[in-house]
């Protein structure tokens, strides 16, 4: 089950977003309650995408147990080019069970759905990730995304030069199956 986060979700979010191993390849350091409260007042608290430049972060919850498994974020990058970007963060305690694939597939479906059906009508969605993040690269491939670029040592990332991979999928290529 996917839904936006609320203040009552902070402890559940801290279980994975507060971990250094989880944040190793992410563009932020481990978060604390104050960080999450600040983000909930901004982008993390958004319930819909209405304009270019916004992002929507949805928690992925287990229907069976009610536990927070992780979250998926969709960025609305360009209205003119109908472009978006997807990202995810999942608790390693729930890895290997298909939850990230299921949640990311649902978010891609939202991004690609026509506006009259409640979606954004995106043409293309990218995922940008640290080249060392093998699990995220494998997830991109399970989602039907193709690797389009490998930028070698292109950005200073957490104290060292890092490689960036870019994966993408077009609306007409996307399949929920």
From TrEMBL:
- Give residue ranges for domain N-acetyltransferase: 1-172
Which Enzyme Commission numbers does its entry carry? 2.3.-.-
Q: Cell division among the record's keywords?
A: no
* UniProt keywords, alphabetically: Acyltransferase, Transferase
Q: Which InterPro entries match?
A: Acyl_CoA_acyltransferase, GNAT_dom, Ribosomal_N-acetyltransferase
Q: Which GO terms describe its molecular function?
A: acyltransferase activity
Keyword field contains Transferase? yes
Pfam families cross-referenced by the UniProt entry: Acetyltransf_3 (PF13302)
Task: Please give the name of this protein.
Answer: GNAT family N-acetyltransferase
Query: Source taxonomy lineage?
Result: Bacteria, Bacillati, Actinomycetota, Actinomycetes, Kineosporiales
